[in-house]
Amino acid sequence: MTRPMTAAHTSVLHPDLTPAQRDCLDVLPLTGNHVVTGPPGSGKSLLAAHRAVHLALTGRPTLLLSRSNLLRQLLRDTLQGLTVPGAPIEAATVHGWVLRHFGYGAPRTQDGWFDWTALTHQAAATLGQNEAATPHLVVDEGQDLSPGFYRLVRLAAASVTVFADECQRLTETNCTLTEITDALGRSTGRAEVTGNHRNTREIASLAEHFRTGGTRPEMPFRSGALPVVRHYSGNQDVVGHIATMAARHPKDRIGVITNSSRTAADLMRRLERAGLAHQPQLYSSAASSGRYRDLDLARPGVVLVHRASTKGLDFDTVVIADTETDAATDPTSATLRMAYYVMVTRARERLVLGWQGSRLPRHLEGLHGWVQMK
Q1: Computed over its alpha carbons, how large is the radius of gyration of the chain?
Q2: Burial class for 273, CB neighbours closer than 10 Å (0-12, 13-18, 19+)
Q3: What does the alpha-carbon distance between residue 197 and residue 195 come to, in Å, rounded to a whole number?
Q4: 193: which of 16, 38, 265, 336 fits an S-S bond (Cβ 3.0–4.6 Å)?
Q5: Is the distance from CB of 210 to CB of 342 less than 8 angstroms?
Q6: DSSP code, position 144
Q7: What InterPro entries does UniProt report for this protein, alphabetically (predicted)?
């Protein structure tokens, strides 16, 4: 039997948060629906985990949801450092939660995603049944889900807390903050967390070049090296540069972001032969289990990940390895700019935007002053 988590089981609820982050948590009631906004680096994922812990203290089952499985792994590891064994709390993907709650026959639309309207009707038909098992839901990177999902969870959850940034909408099933609050109901509370505790000023300044909307976030105080736009002669050149950085910074986590699964696989094969101190890791959403599905994101070394799975992650060094794949895209495209805004803000200390070919991609032109060209 699961034993409810109580205040006596946790000596300090959030000792690792900044005063602004603690204030954000403290203003959130333990009842009702809420949307918390903040820019990259403000600590939304960490706050989502703490919020889930707070809700679990009530003794009601609590789920910390994300659309991305890789982010779920990160949130799971964060929860393990915050809670005690037996607490009614876990990290799950939205996909996994729907299948558990509605069964593997849950209705789907033609695109393969869930039919939120049909599921909402199912939830309405059982409203009020088994009230004690109705969970609190905390959603991280909530902008990646559709309004239909939020209309469903309004009925299927005891409360819903969403952490989101509409400047980071990368999925085809995304929504704005207004759409989230409208779907959850007019009484939905709003809160904001500010600050950037991840990036250097130089990295955050480059990210501003790609930001598509919203208010200008506070610039971090911490300074570092300028981001680098680097020309590579081929994938072996990419690997040689990554190996050099890994040797120079042996305790760092290096995230290599690609736009092509084929490129990622090729870089992985080459990195495995490069004699790195730590075995490289590759995440593949196509893998059902094993080394390409379950990663250790806390250990040093190189992690290769597709850009679609980077949301919520951070690395000491980020290498965006194949920016030439965007060369034909309109550089003013909101989708393109949003993708680079997300990728750039994954970097804590160092950032490299790599390209191959004979001409600098158009979206990397005009960055003088923000980057070094190599």
Answers
A1: 21
A2: exposed
A3: 6
A4: 38
A5: no
A6: G
A7: DNA_helicase_UvrD/REP, P-loop_NTPase
CA distance 348 to 317: 6
Q: In what order do the strands lie in the sheet with 253-258?
A: 281-282, 301-306, 253-258, 315-320, 347-355, 228-231, 372-373
Looking at residue 170, its pLDDT comes to 57
Measuring CA to CA, how many Å separate 271 from each of 287, 321, 353? Answer: 20, 13, 19
Label the pairing between strands 89-93 and 189-192.
Answer: unpaired
Separation between Cα atoms, residue 188 and residue 278, nearest integer Å? 46
Cβ contact 349:200 at 8 Å: yes
**CA 169 from chain center: how many Å?**
11
Instruction: Tell me how far apart the alpha carbons of residues 241 and 244 are, in angstroms, rounded to a whole number.
Output: 5
Torsion angle in degrees (nearest 10) through CA of 89, 95, 100, 106: 150
Encoded tokens for 261 = 């699964």
Q: Which residues of 56-68 are buried (b: 16+ CB within 10 A; e: fewer)?
A: bbbebbbbbbbbb
Matching residue, tokens 């915050």: 82
pLDDT at 147: 95
Token digits of residue 227: 């981001």
Q: Mean pLDDT of successive 10-residue segments in the chain (374 residues)?
A: 35 68 91 94 94 91 96 93 78 96 94 94 87 92 94 96 82 81 95 93 96 85 96 98 98 97 97 97 88 93 96 96 97 94 97 98 94 95
